[in-house]
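Every protein is a chain of amino acids, and every chain bends into a shape of its own. Below is the pair of lines this work produces for a single protein:
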Amino acid sequence: MNYLLLMLFVTIMMTVGLTMVFSTLQTTEVRTPAEEREEKSVQLPAPRKDGGRSIEEVLAARRSVREYADGLLTLQELSQLLWAAQGVTDDPTGFRTAPSAGALYPLEVYVAAGEVADLPAGVYRYLPAEHRLDRVAEGDRRRDLSGAALNQSAVGDAAAVIAIAGVYERTTGKYGERGIRYVHMEAGHAAQNIYLQAASLGLGTVSIGAFHDDDVGRVLGMNEDEHPLYLMPVGKTIRER
């Protein structure tokens, strides 16, 4: 009798367990790669092309700023900075805000966001053609990035850090070894655009080149063929507090 009761109990428990498993399988949502990509994608606000300050005013105001006030960057401000760096200015040709040898565009732009309104902390890659961000990694990586940059406080204290990397092969394939120089020239153009756009928006930034390349690449999840060239922390200026 006890044996029969035991067998009945085991049968009931197995039935309940299988029912729960099948129920879980039926309710688990299977997401397609396109849907998963959409979850990691952030469409940026359209860039503004009618700023109120003249280029002469902005050139005069441009400074390297290493200390930042508390305060979130807006998504519109980040959008504007990224567009200034590598945004598309002509859809048919794909021409961008910074000149590029042979229009080969070897630069990749990343953002380590920590204090940007409506943008979860994380590492993002900027996609110029679509003017959007693709999330590479979750979580605030500014402190890790600061460590990779010899513990420079500007990197850790900024609301966000824009990183410019170069893929040399895109340019050397056409121009040989001299293409490396062209990539560096292009990175300088993009960095100056960020400087001027930051000044136009009343924000502060500074170009940083002292860092461990491998560590920066690891923190930002860069591909092996991407070489970090600039870090540009961005934040509110002290005078705006």
